[in-house]
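Incident log, support desk, overnight shift.

02:14 A customer reports that sequence design results differ from what the structure should imply. Their input is reproduced verbatim below. On-call engineer (initials T.W.) acknowledged and began investigating.
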Protein backbone atom coordinates (compact mmCIF):
# COMPACT_ATOMS: atom_id res chain seq x y z
CA UNK A 1 0.00 0.00 0.00
CA UNK A 2 2.79 2.36 0.74
CA UNK A 3 4.25 1.57 -2.66
CA UNK A 4 0.98 2.50 -4.27
CA UNK A 5 0.86 5.71 -2.24
CA UNK A 6 4.44 6.54 -3.21
CA UNK A 7 3.69 5.77 -6.82
CA UNK A 8 0.59 8.04 -6.75
CA UNK A 9 2.58 10.80 -5.06
CA UNK A 10 5.27 10.52 -7.72
CA UNK A 11 2.70 10.61 -10.52
CA UNK A 12 0.92 13.57 -8.94
CA UNK A 13 4.23 15.32 -8.42
CA UNK A 14 5.17 14.64 -12.04
CA UNK A 15 1.81 15.93 -13.30
CA UNK A 16 2.07 18.99 -11.05
CA UNK A 17 5.55 19.72 -12.44
CA UNK A 18 4.24 19.29 -16.01
CA UNK A 19 1.37 21.69 -15.32
CA UNK A 20 3.75 24.11 -13.65
CA UNK A 21 6.12 23.97 -16.63
CA UNK A 22 3.19 24.41 -19.06
CA UNK A 23 1.92 27.46 -17.15
CA UNK A 24 5.43 28.97 -17.04
CA UNK A 25 5.87 28.32 -20.77
CA UNK A 26 2.50 29.94 -21.63
CA UNK A 27 3.27 32.88 -19.31
CA UNK A 28 6.63 33.44 -20.99
CA UNK A 29 5.03 33.26 -24.45
CA UNK A 30 2.35 35.74 -23.40
CA UNK A 31 4.98 38.11 -21.97
CA UNK A 32 7.06 37.78 -25.13
CA UNK A 33 4.00 38.45 -27.29
CA UNK A 34 3.09 41.46 -25.15
CA UNK A 35 6.60 42.87 -25.55
CA UNK A 36 6.41 42.36 -29.32
CA UNK A 37 3.06 44.12 -29.46
CA UNK A 38 4.40 46.98 -27.35
CA UNK A 39 7.39 47.39 -29.67
CA UNK A 40 5.13 47.45 -32.74
CA UNK A 41 2.85 49.96 -31.02
CA UNK A 42 5.81 52.19 -30.14
CA UNK A 43 7.12 52.04 -33.72
CA UNK A 44 3.74 52.95 -35.18
CA UNK A 45 3.25 55.72 -32.65
CA UNK A 46 6.65 57.16 -33.59
CA UNK A 47 5.66 57.07 -37.27
CA UNK A 48 2.39 58.84 -36.50
CA UNK A 49 4.26 61.48 -34.52
CA UNK A 50 6.67 62.01 -37.44
CA UNK A 51 3.82 62.35 -39.93
CA UNK A 52 2.02 64.85 -37.69
CA UNK A 53 5.21 66.84 -37.11
CA UNK A 54 5.88 67.01 -40.86
CA UNK A 55 2.30 68.03 -41.58
CA UNK A 56 2.32 70.81 -39.00
CA UNK A 57 5.72 71.99 -40.19
CA UNK A 58 4.46 72.27 -43.77
CA UNK A 59 1.24 73.90 -42.54
CA UNK A 60 3.21 76.45 -40.53
CA UNK A 61 5.37 77.27 -43.56
CA UNK A 62 2.23 77.63 -45.66
CA UNK A 63 0.71 80.00 -43.09
CA UNK A 64 3.89 82.07 -42.96
CA UNK A 65 3.86 82.29 -46.77
CA UNK A 66 0.20 83.32 -46.78
CA UNK A 67 0.94 85.92 -44.11
CA UNK A 68 3.68 87.40 -46.29
CA UNK A 69 1.31 87.48 -49.27
CA UNK A 70 -1.34 89.28 -47.21
CA UNK A 71 1.23 91.79 -45.96
CA UNK A 72 2.28 92.43 -49.57
CA UNK A 73 -1.33 92.95 -50.62
CA UNK A 74 -1.93 95.31 -47.70
CA UNK A 75 1.16 97.30 -48.70
CA UNK A 76 -0.04 97.49 -52.31
CA UNK A 77 -3.46 98.64 -51.11
CA UNK A 78 -1.91 101.32 -48.90
CA UNK A 79 0.27 102.50 -51.81
CA UNK A 80 -2.80 102.58 -54.06
CA UNK A 81 -4.70 104.63 -51.48
CA UNK A 82 -1.81 107.06 -51.11
CA UNK A 83 -1.39 107.35 -54.87
CA UNK A 84 -4.99 107.58 -56.07
CA UNK A 85 -7.50 108.24 -53.30
CA UNK A 86 -5.76 110.70 -50.99
CA UNK A 87 -4.87 113.16 -53.77
CA UNK A 88 -8.52 113.12 -54.90
CA UNK A 89 -9.64 113.81 -51.34
CA UNK A 90 -7.14 116.66 -51.12
CA UNK A 91 -8.39 118.07 -54.43
CA UNK A 92 -11.96 117.85 -53.22
CA UNK A 93 -11.02 119.64 -50.01
CA UNK A 94 -9.34 122.38 -52.04
CA UNK A 95 -12.38 122.70 -54.28
CA UNK A 96 -14.64 122.89 -51.23
CA UNK A 97 -12.41 125.58 -49.75
CA UNK A 98 -12.43 127.59 -52.98
CA UNK A 99 -16.19 127.14 -53.34
CA UNK A 100 -16.70 128.32 -49.75
CA UNK A 101 -14.52 131.40 -50.33
CA UNK A 102 -16.45 132.26 -53.51
CA UNK A 103 -19.77 131.95 -51.66
CA UNK A 104 -18.46 134.09 -48.81
CA UNK A 105 -17.22 136.69 -51.29
CA UNK A 106 -20.62 136.69 -53.05
CA UNK A 107 -22.37 137.13 -49.70
CA UNK A 108 -20.08 140.05 -48.81
CA UNK A 109 -20.72 141.70 -52.20
CA UNK A 110 -24.46 141.36 -51.87
CA UNK A 111 -24.33 142.83 -48.37
CA UNK A 112 -22.19 145.72 -49.60
CA UNK A 113 -24.67 146.59 -52.36
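02:41 Re-run completed on a clean worker. Output:
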Amino acid sequence: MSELRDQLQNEMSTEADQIKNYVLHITKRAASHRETLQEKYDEKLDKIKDVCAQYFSKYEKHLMNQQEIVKGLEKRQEDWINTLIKPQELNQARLFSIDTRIKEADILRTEDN
